[in-house]
Specification:
It contains six helices and nine strands, in the order E-E-E-H-E-H-E-E-H-E-H-E-H-E-H. By secondary structure, it is of the alpha/beta class. It has one domain: Aldolase class I (TIM Barrel), CATH 3.20.20. The protein has a nine-stranded mixed sheet.
Amino acid sequence: MLRVHEIFYSIQGESTFAGVPCVFVRLTGCNLRCRWCDTTYAFTQGQCMTLDDIEKQVDSYQCKTVEITGGEPMCQRQEAVLLMARLLAKGYTVLLETNGSLPLEDVPHGVHRIIDLKPPKSGQPHDVALWKTYAEHWRDTDQIKCVVCDRADFDWCIEKLNHYGAIGRIPVLFSPVWGECDPQALVAWICDAHAPIRLNFQIHKIIWDPDTRGV
Ligand code: SF4
């Protein structure tokens, strides 16, 4: 059983898959409290669902890309891993959006792990030992997402990403904190870095009202 906050069908918004139609399985609960979190509603509530029922609902949208998100999906690690394995076996392209604060080694190979690197102004500590472990086992299907609010956060991320051998190895995407970071400034920092990194936007916030859920 998994505690599920919502399952919905929309477009992927925050990764190299941005713009692709995608089914989202949003699991309840998170172990972090980022200062700019926009899914605090997923910290609690939701309903317990069997893997069979989740699969049935995912199948009903007739879309072969599915993202397991939260909250933090790896807070329900054992069952979340089983769900990903089952969806992969059915031929789905499976994405996992995770906050980069929990072990990821048992995520099935083939799952696209979208791992957040939380900079200092997120208010959440960076687990050096855990990131060292990630860095020893980068997979071709991994990518890293950094949401930054200022130049200091950006520079901190670049330094860590170089340290962990991520830049040039796997895709690295930078997003501005909505309403706090000037996107034009972020573009300038990205250009200044002269590195294989890219701009990323929370595109659902541009398309819909920023507070709209289930999109
Ligand atoms: S990890 Fe994600 S869901 Fe959890 S507090 Fe941070 S932004 Fe919110």
